[in-house]
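Data's thin. Show one?
=====
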Amino acid sequence: MAPDPDERPDDQLGLEVDGDGGEDLPDFLRRLAGLVEAEQTAGRLVPGAAVELHLAQLGGHGERTWRAMASWYRDGRGEEARFDPPIPVQGAPELVRRWLADLPPGAPAIDEVRWALALSSQDRFGQDWPAVLREHDAAGLTGLSWLGGPARSPLDRWPRRADGRPLAHLVTVDLEDVEGWREDGWRFPGDGDDPVRLPTTGVLEVFHDLESRGDDAAEGPAGAWLVRWVPEPVPGLVEPPEDVGTPTDVLAVVHPLPTFSLPAAVDGLGRLGPFEGAEEAERQYREVWAYHRTGSLEGTDVPVSRLYGHPQEGRGAADRVLPRVLPLEEPGDAHVLVLEVEGWTALAGWFGDGGVVEVWARASDIRRGELGRAWCLLRLG
């Protein structure tokens, strides 16, 4: 569930942040880091969502806050600041527009940017995520999202391909949480009188055989993947069968963090005009998300699991394949990217040597809640 604005996480942690400059940001970050370290040393866990909400709030504090962050990284840690100019990955459209305007020629225009919701595994906090999820479920609660592991009830039988091979559970996304994080001012697919948005209740789950590329029209009918919307999930976890055969055992709770998405730099290849700005925008964006995930300035800049937005690996495969395997059936219909799940971090090795599963659906199917008709493309790294 998205946070209640009246239940601020800083009340839980005893910290206050004033976006207008009430507390010096470097002092706040030092105190937050010290609190996390002390709690972990004592064997207690700082709620990951509470800590992440603090970090998410920084995106709304304006350009001065981001420059203060860059200065703190450089001066407080003795390292060169790498966020210069600051990158408001969770900022308002105007901040993003100003950031893009400072990049080299060829950077995307603000009207090309789309809202997205990152699903961050936040592996730097060291929580026992399987225990967190199972305790949450044992208490009769729903509302979490996670990668790998079990599926959400109800599920009569574990999905398998037509040849009997069980599918791997990639992700469960709490859709009420998604709606709670939605922000005004950003463009969505089909913006205007009839925007395209996912259902606002239930969960979205994706299962995949980890090998089908999605470029063969026979793969969908053969059950190479399953995308399902569960309008009324209930407490209870459905464990995968023993023969599921995933490369690793993974269960990682993810925190939804609002962000934006840029057109992939590769989509600009072959166009007239400069290209450097698009590459630099993409590099900086991924670099900041690597910091969010790892807490290190040396994090690898890899794709981010997220809902909505532009495909991070470019539109080339979708534009070539989808008209053939998922033809549009109604006037004015369109192919919409629903979800991307990356295979570089929590699910490392699941899609070969890095890769991304893209979930695409017709806008008309999304509006009718028929997400089971979605199509998956496996983009190998």
Summary: The mean pLDDT is 78. The chain is about 30% helix and 20% strand.
